[in-house]
């Protein structure tokens, strides 16, 4: 049953990917949401870090080599991010970065992206990369946007606008790979057991999600953490047996992912009139890792642009030639997925079954009239 579903979706996903890579710019005439507000890390950063004093920037070729302009644009990918694709499905362009001075006035009306490479749920996370908008700073930045929106709409219209908007939140990966799993720079693994650390993240995260709900956002997509023990930078540590991922890394993510899923459930119970969806990123990326051909992938244990062991020891460098068949690769660089994989994640977040999106998917959430 499950296998049949996956096979059908795999084929549909491939066909849609080919179609969408051509047509995603022709955003539909009737958007299903008023705006997208994006909170997160490099997985969904669309250029904020280009305006920050950070070494985590995707401002050089070959980043963006498959984007419409073919130029680097701050996305940590060869082409489109999950949010670009979700925007295409919802009929709204991916929102502009908060840090861009041009993101004011009418340009706020389709939403704003606060996502920042190296950012985590914890303020300390990613510190060694320089400046970044941490989760708590992103919430403050959203309030700045709200102040501007208040000057553009009546209170009743703003309430309606926010109720028809979707907040996409993608956090947690850096709290592991750029904090807990970096004992030489961060003390967290000496202070917390893996499950205590997962619960610490959940407590901080829950508080900020509730803060965003209390200022008017009503629809939330909360993405779980992918199997980080399988990304090229982790494989490159050489600590996994041949042909395997780092199981201990994947196992320590269970507390956070399962906790986030049940947090979505309890938030739905405690906040009637709001919707919280958990996205099973771990399961979706796990499917791609376990069944590469079903998604058109041929390489899932090395990056398309990187060098050293698993092309993951040194991530994609300026002017480095990427692999030529980028749709064959699950991973673009040592840390991030390719556009092809991002499409699969977006498709399943948008229209997947409850095993992908709990309790409903983004399409269903968008259609609810609050
Ligand atoms: C408020 O919404 C109504 C109905 O959608 C619209 O006609 C009106 O122009 C809006 N007013 C402002 C100030 O946004
Ligand atoms: C990646 O997996 C393939 C089999 O799919 C294997 O032949 C290759 O050695 C692996 N590469 C690395 C760097 O482990």
Automatic annotation (TrEMBL):
Give one Pfam family: Lipase_GDSL
Please state the protein's primary subcellular location.
secreted
Q: Which family does it belong to?
A: Belongs to the 'GDSL' lipolytic enzyme family.
Q: What is this protein called?
A: GDSL esterase/lipase
User: Which residue positions does the secretion signal occupy?
Assistant: 1-29
GO terms of molecular function? lipase activity
The record's listing under CDD domains reads: SGNH_plant_lipase_like
Which Gene Ontology biological process is one annotated for this entry? lipid catabolic process
Annotated InterPro entries: GDSL, GDSL_esterase/lipase, Lipase_GDSL_AS, SGNH_hydro_sf, SGNH_plant_lipase-like
Organism, by scientific name, is: Daucus carota subsp. sativus
**PROSITE patterns recorded:** LIPASE_GDSL_SER
Q: Which UniProt keywords apply?
A: Hydrolase, Lipid degradation, Lipid metabolism, Secreted, Signal
Q: Which GO cellular component terms, listed alphabetically, does the Swiss-Prot or TrEMBL entry include?
A: extracellular region
Subcellular locations according to the entry: Secreted
């Amino acid at each position: 049953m499950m296998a049949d579903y996956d096979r059908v979706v795999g084929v549909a996903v491939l066909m849609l990917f080919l179609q969408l890579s051509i047509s995603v710019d022709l955003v539909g005439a009737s958007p299903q949401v008023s705006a997208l507000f994006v909170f997160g890390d490099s997985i969904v950063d669309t250029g904020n870090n280009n305006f920050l004093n950070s070494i985590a920037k995707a401002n050089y070729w070959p980043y963006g080599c498959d984007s419409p302009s073919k130029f680097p644009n701050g996305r940590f990918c060869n082409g489109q991010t999950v949010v670009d694709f979700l925007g295409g499905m919802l009929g709204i362009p991916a929102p502009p970065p908060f840090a861009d001075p041009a993101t004011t006035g009418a340009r706020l009306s389709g939403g704003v992206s606060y996502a920042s490479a190296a950012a985590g749920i914890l303020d300390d996370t990613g510190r060694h990369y320089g400046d970044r908008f941490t989760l708590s700073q992103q919430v403050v930045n959203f309030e700045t946007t709200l102040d501007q929106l208040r000057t553009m709409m009546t209170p009743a219209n703003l309430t309606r606008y926010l109720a028809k908007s979707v907040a996409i939140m993608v956090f947690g990966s850096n709290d592991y790979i750029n904090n807990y799993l970096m004992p030489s720079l961060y003390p967290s693994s000496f202070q917390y057991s893996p499950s205590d650390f997962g619960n610490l993240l959940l407590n901080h995260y829950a508080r900020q999600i509730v803060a965003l709900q209390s200022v008017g956002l009503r629809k939330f997509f909360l993405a779980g953490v992918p199997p980080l023990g399988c990304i090229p930078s982790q494989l490159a540590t050489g600590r996994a047996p041949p042909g395997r991922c780092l199981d201990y890394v994947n196992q320590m993510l269970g507390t956070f992912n399962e906790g986030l899923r049940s947090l979505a459930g309890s938030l739905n119970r405690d906040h009637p009139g709001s919707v919280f969806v958990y996205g099973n990123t771990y399961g979706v990326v796990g499917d791609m890792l376990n069944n590469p051909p079903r998604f058109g992938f041929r390489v899932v244990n090395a990056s398309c642009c990187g060098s050293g062991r698993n092309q993951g020891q040194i991530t994609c460098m300026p002017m480095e030639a990427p692999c030529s068949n980028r749709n064959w690769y699950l991973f673009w660089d040592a840390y991030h997925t390719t556009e092809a994989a991002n499409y699969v994640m977006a498709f399943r977040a948008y229209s997947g079954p409850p095993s992908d999106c709990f309790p409903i998917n983004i399409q269903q959430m968008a259609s609810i009239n609050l």
